[in-house]
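Subject: for your reference before the review

Hello V.,

The reviewers asked for a structural picture of the protein, and I figured it would be easier to keep everything in one thread rather than splitting it across files. Below is the amino acid sequence we used in the manuscript, unchanged from the supplementary table.
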Amino acid sequence: MLTGLSLPALLEELAAPREVPGAGSALAAALAAAAAVVQMAARLSPASWADAAGVAAQAEALRERAVQLVDEDAEAYRLALEARAAADERARPEQRDWALGQITAAAAEPPLALVRLAADLAELCAAAGERVEPRVHADVAAAAALAAAVARGARALVAANLTALAGDARVEEADRLVAAADAAARSL
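And here is what came back from the structure prediction:
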């Protein structure tokens, strides 16, 4: 379980010469860190902002979900790699392709959840940016920029995991969410 590791140990796991864990887990950890920064900024702002506690709670919920995605992404991708390696070449091609399609589609779910979560965090940052204490405004802007970057990176994983066909609804959703996250980050 990656989430039980110290930060240096997690980074060693990410740097190891194997495919899992990969970028999805790294992106989820980065998003959790960005949410923690927003939570900190809101907690430092209760005197000037009545909704600070509610925003801190929202940031905490986003952080907790991002932490879960660190492990979920690694597990889904591991299962997809194992399924590809174990694909029965003797099976009828349509059966084999259908089974592989199902497992790779499942591997796209954690990155898609990450795109959604990153867009939510970027929008929370945009809403909080002008309300937090001035001394932590730059922290919120940095968290929004990180959330937008995570959304872009996770979108690339969605497309790669799906070996996406043109017009795939999940990729189109990810594209819309990336645009929203980018706009939210730029508003700060």
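For the response letter, the relevant points are probably these. The chain has a mean pLDDT of 91. The two ends are 36 Å apart (CA to CA).

Happy to draft the paragraph if you're swamped.

O.
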